[in-house]
Specification:
single chain; alpha+beta; four-stranded antiparallel β-sheet; two-stranded antiparallel ribbon; 2 helices; 20% helix; N-reg_PII; transcription regulation; enzyme regulator activity; P-II family nitrogen regulator
């Protein structure tokens, strides 16, 4: 079985996360610049209210057996302190029925 792991993380943590994933053999990753807000619904800094903050969306598809390892890498590398902070991000895991390579038509990873 395959899983798609999506992680919304702070932009300054992306390179660190990608390096550690590559070190563990997970090199196939897609990344996008995104904007959004979490449960805190924005942030006030002084008199300025930031409704949406810049984040990066990372996603990869892997064998389900690697899910815990990948989630642990992302969680460990994305945290901004030992206990974490608001805005450190979120991870979503989805079941994937299948994957196909466009150039070859090969099925699976």
């Amino acid at each position: 079985m395959l899983v798609k792991i999506e992680a919304i993380v702070r932009p300054e943590k992306t390179e660190q996360i990608l390096a550690k994933l590559a070190e563990k053999g997970h090199t196939a990753v897609t990344r996008m610049d995104v904007y959004g807000r979490g449960k805190q619904a924005g942030i006030h800094i002084g008199d300025v209210f930031y409704d949406e903050l810049p984040k990066e969306l990372l996603f990869l598809v892997a064998e389900a057996a690697h899910e815990k390892e990948i989630v642990d890498v992302i969680t460990t590398q994305a945290r901004t302190s030992d206990l974490g902070n608001y805005g450190d991000g979120r991870i979503f895991v989805h079941a994937i029925e299948n994957a196909y390579t466009i150039s070859s038509g090969a099925e699976g990873l």
